[in-house]
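User: I'm curious whether this sequence folds into something compact or stays loose and floppy. Could you predict its structure so I can see for myself?
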Amino acid sequence: MRARLAVLLDELRTSFWFVPAAMVLGALVLFVATRHLDASIGHEAERALGWTYAGGAEGARGLLSTIATAVISVAGVSFSITIAALTLASSQLGPRLLRTFLRDRGNQIVLGTLVATFVYSLLVLRTIRGEDAGDVVPQISITVSVLLAAASVGVWIYFLHHVATEIQAEQVIAAVAGELDESIDTLFPEQLGREPERAAPREPPGDAAPVRACSTGYLQAVDEPALLGLLAERDAVLRFDVRPGRFVVEGAAIGAVHPAACAGEELDAAVGKALCIGLQRTPVQDAEHAIDQLVEIALRALSPGINDPFTAIACIDRLGAAIHRLGQRAMPAAERLDEDGKLRVVADAVTFDELVARAFDALRDAARPHAMVAIRLLDALEPALVYAEPGRRAALLRQAAMVLRASEALPERHDRERVMRRHRALTEAASATPRDTPEQRPDAESGGAA
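Assistant: Here's the prediction. I'll summarize afterward.
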């Protein structure tokens, strides 16, 4: 249930309708409140306030009609500008980055404010009555509509500035990097000190039978408590061969269960209910999602058609910072135990080596013609090499060595020597600055917790 709720919240965050719809509902509540206030205090008290609308019915109708027409026109223009910005970002930075723009809270609030003002003005307009119908002019409600129109002008000015800045490559990269940091904090709890010891992954016994997917799509999240409870009821052990972010096909095996007698369509359907499968990847439990987005931006920037190495360098800087943080975080164990401490799931857990490869492998190949990009790759590896757990340095040193070998394709000897010198300085810095052990850390207690 928690995993499905997280996926639902992520879908709402990336939807362009949820915040505007909530603000329209707020406008309905505001209308009810101001209408009640108008009916309660009377016209004389309203005029005594000094700042409320004091005109007649015809003037009020004209004012509200003008506000409603202007605001809905601006909302249409705002939507058109947003679509144009999304089209530009999709063509230059990649279609998968549309999700980053859609989840932008500023755009959602701007559209919500304009639509809410339009709806509120129409609701107030229908309550106005002339002298022949009892002369009903809700001054407070009309005044609130004017204030909402003024607020709409303010958010429109903000929107123009916001759209002009959010389509810049640096802003997009920073937004994706922020999402990556959120994923790291959620999926990899902060750890000070040594990586906790864990047993080697255990496999189900030999009489295991396959468990098959019940639908096709990307595995977005796994409801771990539900899955563990299901397996505990059947006293079974499941080896899970897919992880969030992987594509599964209906009818294809996604793991194996022991004992084999538990396998069957009933178990497949029960396991399927614990899996969130959708049309696209999400960062809810997918640690590689934001990394892939940054890599995609960098690869497009390094393509011959664009040839923008500085954008690629900005992505590499963010990836280096993320790998530096990951180097000090605990990786998830493969084993999942139930409440009684019995093994129930052997998961396909992501490793630090896989994350490093995901971040740098494709970029290393694309950076062959660019000496400054190769040097920046080595620069990005240095913080992680210096501060990562000793057991994780092998993957980083391997990446550095591959960058050095790839630089042999550079046509200029001077460029090859620059990369070689940077690689030598990197390895020397890593060997000269060993990572502190928990006993050496001044801020660490026994057990390595701060």
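Summary: DSSP finds 15 helices and eight strands in the chain. Confidence is low (pLDDT under 50) at residues 191-201, 435-450.
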